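Dear support,

Our group has been running a series of protein-ligand predictions, and this particular one with iron/sulfur cluster is the one our PI (initials K.S.) wants archived with full inputs and outputs. We had some confusion internally about which version of the output was final, so please treat the block below as the authoritative record. The input we submitted was:
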Amino acid sequence: MAADFTLPQLDSRVLSTLNADGTRRWMQPRDARGKYWRARLSVAIALIAVFTALPWIRISGKPAIFLDVMTRHFTFFGTTFRSTETLLLAILMITVFVSIFLITALFGRAWCGWGCPQTVYLEFVYRPIERLFLGTGSMRGTGGAPLWRRIAMYAAFLVISAHLANTFLAYFVGTDRMMEWTLGQPANHPVAFALFAGTVALMLFDFVFFREQLCTIVCPYGRMQSVLLDRNSLVVAYDRLRGEPRARVAERKKRETSAQKVGDCIECTMCVQVCPTGIDIRDGLQLECIHCAQCIDACDQVMTRIGKAPGLIRYSSQNRIEGTPNSSFRYRLLLYPALLLLLVGTLTVLIARHEQVLIEQERTVGSNFTLGADGSVETPIRLLIENRTDAARSFTVHGIADVAIVGELPSIQVAPSSAASIAFSVRTTSASFGRGSRHGSVLIRDDLGVTQAEILSIAGPFNATGSMTTGDWP
Ligand code: SF4
Ligand code: SF4
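Confirmed final output from the archive:
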């Protein structure tokens, strides 16, 4: 016999994006054009311009940002790093994280509401297009709009998503290859076309269907707010002391004449209707709040209309909104900047010393050295030369002091952004050896006249008399 099973009835929503029965709650937030909206619009235009332009801008002949995952070369503003430069890349990543921690401690989720591409493109590109085609009144929601409007809207979404996918991929494949793919036939670049089509599909999925759920369900940054914020951090907050008890306009007069206290909130719910994540800020600070300040703009307009001072919802801290002054001392505001200073200092030194040519001695195969009758020692040497520049370079090896090159000076040409090995022998004297090895230097000079000294480990006899004719690698 089948068990009788009914879903528990909940008093409130589990997620702001779900209805009580578990179906998707589609957000169609109203427009609220106030001072914060105008400021965010300016920031959004600037960010979209920068994001679109960065792969095209050249610094020292290189793209401003190029994350070439195929060759694992990462270019930032004229400097290219390899994936092997793990220390540098690790410090760079930690610097980014600590900066985010500091910004969050100071300004709350300013990044989410003002700078995140998800918010910028959704609120200032996709949502306005939707409002343009579907309107903001009774037609809101695709159900009420004529078919041609819906088709035109999805066509516009497709064009925008294709452009966005092109820009996004340009960061990873470069603008030259991107242009080649775009101007070529898809049949000539099937893999590239599949990559492009997949990226467009992802953009459409995110900005047309998934939307605010990326912020409320997926994004790990949102999940970390409880540890990144404290009671002194800047947040969007409702002034409960001023707003409560709430009273609709119709009730206010009655309550006021009977000398009952009424707060400034008139229960118009405009702050909820404009919220892109569907929450009610009057319930307090919530994980879903991306600090976009839409509710501030909406409430300020309401307050102005009813003749009250704006700021019932405002940027403040949890302390200040509850009437407690902000703490003047916060450990995290000492710790994060100190850590950031250390990281940026280390990063600056590492980048300043970032070598254009990397030379390493490799292990040789076969006999480690040959002892001559005159007491000279000839040792084969092998060097790996990595040319990290964007032009082919020629290198010639010269001996220094008592380390002489056997035969002609060895030279090699190394292609841009690649490495090659060069083999040669050095001549020393057995008298300079002890314990089977010694150190000595050679000079590597390139065609631009740049000279670099390389310290070698040179294999030789175990003592000055040259009692051994072959030895082990030290
Ligand atoms: S917009 Fe302002 S007045 Fe209206 S419900 Fe929200 S807090 Fe109250
Ligand atoms: S509560 Fe206000 S600030 Fe937070 S997401 Fe909603 S509209 Fe934006």
